[in-house]
Amino acid sequence: MISFDEAVALVRQLSQPLATEQVPLDRAAGRVLARPVVAPRTAPAFPTSAMDGYAVRDSDLAQAPVKLRVAGESYAGRPFGKRAGPGTCVRIFTGAVVPPGFDRVVIQEQVGQSNGLAFFDRTPSGGRHIRPVGSDFFAGEAILPAGIVLTPQALIAAAGADVGEVCAVRQPRIAILATGDELAVPGTAHLRAGAVPDSVSVGIAALAEAFGGAVVLRLRIPDTLEALESGADEALACSDIVVVTGGASVGERDYARDMFRGHAMQPVFSKVAMKPGKPVWMSRAGARLVVGLPGNPGSALVTARLFLAPLVAGLSGRGAGLAWQWQSARLGENAPEVGDRETFYRGQLHEGRAVFVGNQDSSAQAALGVSRILIRRAAGAGVLPEGREVSFLPL
Ligand SMILES: Nc1nc2c(c(=O)[nH]1)N[C@H]1C(S)=C(S)[C@@H](COP(=O)(O)OP(=O)(O)OC[C@H]3O[C@@H](n4cnc5c(N)ncnc54)[C@H](O)[C@@H]3O)O[C@H]1N2
Ligand code: MOO
């Protein structure tokens, strides 16, 4: 059995980004950029009208009021395309190319029009309502740096540079194997004596996706070695990280490690001196990683948040550290004495103060459901009075 900090160090070492790949922009949301996005094109690529109105020459409007012949129209996507000399104006709309020679756009609210003539009653001043070429960015400019997550706003910027695909870190593929004869699809457990809803895989799948993973396989497997071995084969064939829930402890039908016996496995750790979650384990199977979570829902969630989330974040290119951003808060109540394992209590923040949810049993799901933080306390620590600082991680 190793300490929590030793386990963190081992997970950190294994949390290196996967290879990179070209990804079409419409499938790149949430992915991490592996190379900067360099604009292949200047934007705006042409002088662009910012308003609906009339493109004019300042020299023609110096002596307002004045009437100018409307030489034609320039719409967004349908430029005027001809030459329009002095003494004329061009009807123009937002987003349209401003024809060469014109200095400004006068908004239509300030212009009268009849019989092909536009009336300007005063000399315009102030904004020209023309966006110059390159006023957003120039071709060759790195508009998004490597390492960022492709947010909706980053996708707009990349697409706006006329980019169709980006170089991104490959997304970690996660397979979740929930083991146990008792497990049933949530919503159906009441139909079979002794059945228990498979609650854990629902939460673990959501957690893996929240930290940048793609869940590619979810199986519920009964406790027979044959079924478990075939689940292990299937999972290793299609994923980067296999998560096994349950069967981690010492029970007679706890096969979570044996199910991988046909594969060359290198243990990373087995058992961590922590509460809950002592039976958590991790192994390597070639380039794949296998994470074994204890079956109790509280233990599974806590160990997944502390070890699986950083691993997924690391492989996805976000960096494992994203999942280990410890914060501190004052206690809103006394914290109890800690046993001989480093302990992670489920809690909440009330007016900025850390409090514990009532039921800390590792099988408790109602209390787990409303917890928002994990409060960390060292093994063997005594009672800590209300008002003292504790370290916590958001859930
Ligand atoms: N003699 C010992 N018994 C146990 C020990 C020990 O050290 N000596 N460790 C205990 C601890 S700590 C934990 S945590 C559990 C972990 O057990 P397993 O990982 O082997 O999990 P299971 O036995 O399969 O299940 C435990 C518990 O959790 C429920 N479960 C399992 N999977 C799910 C799921 N996907 N969704 C919802 N609930 C699940 C299962 O029904 C059991 O109630 O072992 C202690 N025992
Ligand atoms: O790892 Mo177990 O969490 O103490 O129930």
- Overall, the morphology is elongated
Helical stretch count?
A: 7
Q: Provide the list of bound ligands, each named once.
A: ligand LQZAQKY5, molybdate ion
Number of strands: 26
- Gap from first CA to last CA: 25 Å
Strand content: 25-35%
Biggest sheet layout: 6 strands, mixed
CATH topology of the largest domain: Molybdenum Cofactor Biosythetic Enzyme, Chain A
Q: Could you give the order of strands across the largest sheet?
A: 7-4-6-5-9-8
As a percent range, the share of helical residues equals 10-25%
Would you tell me the structural class of the helices and strands?
alpha+beta
Question: What CATH first level of the largest domain would be assigned?
Answer: Alpha Beta
Question: Describe it for me?
Answer:
This protein is an alpha+beta fold. The chain folds into four domains: 4-18 and 171-324, MoaB/Mog-like domain (Molybdenum Cofactor Biosythetic Enzyme, Chain A), CATH 3.40.980; 24-42 and 144-168, no CATH class; 48-131, Beta Complex (Molybdopterin biosynthesis moeA protein, domain 3); 327-394, Beta-clip. Helix content is 19%, strand content 30%. It has helices at 4-14, 58-61, 152-160, 199-210, 225-238, 297-316, 366-369, and strands spanning 20-24, 37-38, 48-49, 53-56, 66-74, 88-92, 104-107, 111-114, 117-120, 130-131, 142-144, 165-169, 173-179, 183-184, 196-197, 214-221, 241-245, 266-270, 274-275, 281-285, 288-293, 327-330, 342-350, 353-356, 373-377, 389-394. A six-stranded mixed beta sheet has the order 7-4-6-5-9-8. A six-stranded mixed beta sheet has the order 16-13-17-21-20-18, with helices on both faces. Strand 20 and strand 21 form a beta hairpin. Helix 1 (4-14) packs parallel to helix 6 and helix 4 packs parallel to helix 6 (297-316). It starts with a helix and ends with a strand. It binds ligand LQZAQKY5 and molybdate ion. Molybdate ion binds at residues 275-279, 294, 296, 299, 362.
